[in-house]
Amino acid sequence: MAINKNHEFEELDGVKCGIVEKNVLPERVQFLKKLLEYNRFTVVVVLSPPPKAAPAPVVKLAEGVEPPPPPPPPLPPAAETFTVGVTDYTFNPINAIFGRLLHTQDGHVVTQAYWQQKETVSHDEVPYYERGV
């Protein structure tokens, strides 16, 4: 069981893994896999289970009452999503980002904006506590 919501681990394909992200689209999987493998993590990707559907309620009708109209057709299936994990089950993505433990292929430290794919290039700044006065 996880210590908190930010440190999850579970078994993926028979291997105990630290969860990086769940319900990830294929494009995001490729980004994370490339980044984590560059940082020497073994990445495990599995198909996320489909969301559970609620059972239809059973309505008992009194005599002489018309049945309700049939339910609307089901929604189209959602896009295929994946769960991404690493075999180092102590891995915590938040600690890795803010602890400046991950690097891009061009040698920069991975920032939060880069991790969230808001920026295509990581602009690592010197943290305030390492700057000279």
Description of the molecule:
There is one protein chain. With 133 residues, this protein is α+β, with helices and mostly antiparallel strands. It has one domain. It is built from 3 helices and 4 strands. Strands 1-2-4-3 form a 4-stranded antiparallel sheet, covered by helices on one side. A hairpin with a 2-residue loop joins β1 (9-12) and β2. The longest helix is centred in the N-terminal third of the chain and has 13 residues, at 26-38. The two termini are 44 Å apart.
**Strands, total number:** 4
Output mean pLDDT: 84
Shape: elongated
Q: End-to-end span in angstroms?
A: 44 Å
Our count of domains comes out at: 1
Give the number of helices.
3
Judged by helices, strands and strand pairing, the structural class is alpha+beta
Strand percentage lies at 15-25%
> Within the largest sheet, what's the order of strands?
1-2-4-3
Helix content: 10-25%
**Biggest sheet architecture:** 4 strands, antiparallel
Along the chain, the helix and strand elements come as: EEHEEHH
Radius of gyration (Å): 22 Å
Unreliable stretches covering 5 or more consecutive residues: none
Which tags fit this structure?
four-stranded antiparallel sheet, elongated, alpha+beta, 17% helix, 133 residues
Write a compact overview of the structure shown:
With 133 residues, the chain is of the alpha+beta class. It has helices at residues 26-38, 93-98, 112-115, and strands at 9-12, 15-24, 43-47, 82-86. It has a four-stranded antiparallel beta sheet, covered by helices on one side.
Secondary structure layout:
Blueprint: E1 9-12, E2 15-24, H1 26-38, E3 43-47, E4 82-86, H2 93-98, H3 112-115
Antiparallel strand pairs: 1-2, 2-4, 3-4
